[in-house]
Amino acid sequence: MVKQTIQIFARVKPTSRKQPQGIYSVDEDEKSVAALEIILPRDLAEGFVNNKRESYKFKFQRIFDQESKQEDIFDIIAKPVAESVLSGYNGTIFAYGQTGSGKTFTITGGAERYSDRGIIPRTLSYIFEQLQKDSRKMYTTHISYLEIYNECGYDLLDPRHEASSLEDLPKVTILEDPDQNIHLKNLSLQQATTEEEALNLLFLGDTNRMIAETPMNQASTRSHCIFTVHISSKEPGSAIVRHAKLHLVDLAGSERVAKTGVGGQLLTEAKYINLSLHYLEQVIIALAEKHRSHIPYRNSMMTNVLRDSLGGNCMTTMIATLSLEKRNIDESISTCRFAQRVALIKNEAVLNEEIDPRLTIIRLKKEIQELKDELAIVTGEQRTEELTQVELDKLEEQIRSFLEDQDPESRLEVGSDMRKIHHCFHYLKKLLSERKIPEKSEPSPEIKDQDGEVPLKEEEFKKLRDILKQRDNEISILSEIPGKRGKEQIKYQ
Ligand SMILES: Nc1ncnc2c1ncn2[C@@H]1O[C@H](COP(=O)(O)OP(=O)(O)OP(=O)(O)O)[C@@H](O)[C@H]1O
């Protein structure tokens, strides 16, 4: 088991306009962590969150400033997570930040240059490279791509996506088993045997992804997307299979509704996004609190799906994307605050191992066959599953002649074949049930007298009474004739 708090990183998006001096500073000198200081411009400070403060300082594992390359992001953030997924642990990387701060650029990448490839294509490339190198194990890789839009789940890899409108597509729903494991109904798992196949699935999903335009961002994604790589591994000959999932999550923009200046459908979307991010925040607050027993995962689809990634069996990393321009200062501070809370959450990642039932059946079948072969050598006859009809008839004939035999010493010899022994009992039971079994006569209970002695039977009693009577007579005769008494006495001596 690996116990670890959620790792938090910050990435600052390059600004197109000339950046006013002193909006933020990065302090990398601190030993294990880096600090990002956001300095409030004088004209903004008044009426802001806390107008007495002039700056806000936030700690991160590392801060990627405007010049950082996609390659650095992969090497430092994603590669260690991909490595632990290859060893059998669950992993999650999620990007959180306001619209246009670079979440999609970081997770998926930009389409213009090859070097702009983001975490997903680079991770796929790395994973397949490692799988090819490792000949000790057999691996299977599947991809799923889930979009959560207005609290409903959609399968981005559903081939009907292009032909149907979103409402006509089957919704992905959450099922919970008795062990509280989450299963997603209607979310397909597509096998990918090569990097190319996996990349094609990513492109297919991205094409299907919901895109809407807002005044703030010309191509802003209004949904949460979870790209998942499922890896199973097994050593040849072993029945133990390891399963690990890697969630790469691009959340919808975290900005507050009021600022985006949208209405109608987009306002509805924004409310849903805000609500689900609010629930995400609630889960994170609950997890960060000590001794809190109830975590409100069930409030939204996203927190349900990411249940393991937040406070569960997973190694999780968050990337706070920041667009540190003057107009975005408040959103940037709120993103950093969110990250500080996330950093308090402890996860416990365990190796996800299970015994493959199919392989166990194959192994047991092989073992049974070997035992049958051994038995056939010892008994000289090939053992089949059931006794044949000829064998059954012969056995029943044997039982009947045993029952008819009057010799008390006679025996029923069927050998050590358990199938024959069982059949004997069944057959005897059948015979007994067909015949009327006489009811047993109850023996008369022995009645004890007051002294606890068992009374004599009537015949014995009669005999003894007669003897007693005879003795009485003799005594009375002897006592009547005194001379005769002495004579008798002499006679007995
Ligand atoms: N680090 C970066 N380097 C160069 N361009 C970037 C960087 N980050 C973002 N961009 C560009 O900024 C624009 C907005 O970025 P992106 O679409 O990734 O934002 P987002 O946070 O995903 O927004 P949304 O919430 O709408 O999904 C894109 O054109 C993207 O190419």
UniProtKB/TrEMBL annotation:
Coiled-coil segments: 361-405
Gene Ontology BP, a term: microtubule-based movement
One Gene Ontology molecular-function label: ATP binding
Secretion signal span: none
Gene3D superfamilies attached to this UniProt entry: Kinesin motor domain (3.40.850.10)
Main location: cytoplasm
Gene Ontology cellular-component terms listed: microtubule
Xref: InterPro entries: Kinesin-like_fam, Kinesin_motor_CS, Kinesin_motor_dom, Kinesin_motor_dom_sf, P-loop_NTPase
UniProt domain Kinesin motor: residue ranges: 5-345
Pfam families assigned: Kinesin
Residues given in the record as ATP binding sites: G97, Q98, T99, G100, S101, G102, K103, T104
Protein origin, superkingdom: Eukaryota
Location of this chain's protein in the cell: Cytoplasm, Cytoskeleton
Alphabetically ordered keywords of this record: ATP-binding, Coiled coil, Cytoplasm, Cytoskeleton, Microtubule, Motor protein, Nucleotide-binding
Family according to the record: Belongs to the TRAFAC class myosin-kinesin ATPase superfamily. Kinesin family.
Protein name: Kinesin-like protein
